[in-house]
Structure formats: C-alpha cells, structure tokens
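Think of the structure tokens as a kind of shorthand, similar to the way a musician reads notation: each symbol stands for something richer, in this case the local conformation of the backbone. In the example below we present two proteins back to back. Begin with the first one, reading the sequence and then the tokens, and try to describe in your own words what changes along the chain.
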Amino acid sequence: SSDTVEIPKLLDIENPESYLVVGDDEIKFDRYLTPEEEAERTEREKLEAEKRRLEMADNARERALVTMMHGKLEIRPEDELQKDLEKPEFMLTKAENQWNEDELKLAKEFEKKKDRLRLCVDTTA
C-alpha cells in the first residue's frame, strides 16, 4: 500500500549514551587553537578584510554613504544635538554697534538657531 510509516524518535531517556556526548554549544569557553590553527585563522581574517576593503572600493554607494553621512541613512535628533553651533566671525571680532544690516540679520538667525537647539536639548533631557 502507499501508506508511509513514521519512525518514532527516541527520547533522551531512552538513549542513555546521549548523555555522554558533549556538543560544542555546551562548552562555555573558547577552543584552544594550536599555533598552526591560529596562523591559519589570522591569514583567513586578513584575506576577508582585504576582500571587504576591495568591495568597499568598488561600491560607490557605500563609499558615498560613509563619506557624506558617516555610514548612517537617517538623521537622528541626538546627532543634531552633537553639532557645535559656531558664532559667525563678525560676532567675535566686532562690537554689536559696528554691525551692518547683513550682519544683524545673520546674528538674528544665529540666535534663532541657538534657541531652537536649546529647546531641543531641554525636550530631550
């Protein structure tokens, strides 16, 4: 007939020899590597690193991402708070009564940015 017979699996209690077998996942420390195995592993890691470096050199998208956005695709508010807000040069060198109209506009924009940044810091803290 076409009926298939399922073969039951033995439980651990039915197979006492299974208690004597130790799996790699049960060992809590790193395996000892002989000097030859260590040299082989080091060489393999070097080859993999070189392969990744060559792939990065060929991948314009990844290179651009790292160059322009430090490897991140999205801008997080925490990153924006890390940016330093620098005063315009004229605010450091001239007295306030010597500023012209353009410099006054730039000073107002700077103050707005500073207030917005302070508000962001206050809301995240």
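Once you have a description of the first chain, move to the second and do the same.
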Amino acid sequence: MVTPLYIKVNYNPYFFELHLNGEIDDCKTRIVIEDNMITIYLLKLLPSLWTDIVNPDAKDSVKRRELVANAYQYHEKKVQEDVEKRKTVKAEQNKIALRTAMDQESQEKDRIESVKQSE
C-alpha cells in the first residue's frame, strides 16, 4: 500500500512499513518485488532535500496509529474514486459502442432502401 506519507509492503516472511517525512507522488511510486529483494522507487511530490526519510512522529505509538489510520482512510478514498472512475469510463464506452452500432444499423437501412428504390 502506498499513500503520499506511508508505505507498507508485506512480502512473506517480511513486513516493511515506512512513515515518510515528506510527501511522495503515490501514483508514480513503484514497488518491485523480486527474488528475496524489494525495490522501492519514490518520486517526491515537491523537490526538496529531506534530512530524514522517516517521520519523527512515527516513534510515538499513539501518533503512529493515527498516521496509519489516516493512510488507510486515504487509500480507501482513492480506491473508491478509482472504482467510480472505472464505472464512468465503462458507461461512456458502452454509450459510444451503442451509438456506433446504431449508426451502422442506420447506414445499412439507408443502403438497403437505396437499393430497393433503384430496382
């Protein structure tokens, strides 16, 4: 799971969790899991120098739970938005396909009518 401030990778038997000190672009971040190796490619949202990659608030267990809860909330919202976007795109594609089929049918009817009239 990747959010702008949180990364979680569960690759049995390993578990990796990182609370980031700065925001990253969660859409362009890539996690590659290969034989016994995990490679994480992060792209900062704002180009700047991070003095530390880990958020200092993550050391406190109460704040860490809050950070994780916020990350899960963000992730859930993003998943819901993606589902809605896919539904919208699919509905639009279905409309276009229906219009195309109707246009083809209309053209075929017109062609048949013109053939009948020419006979």
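Compare your description with these statements about the second chain. The radius of gyration is 26 Å.
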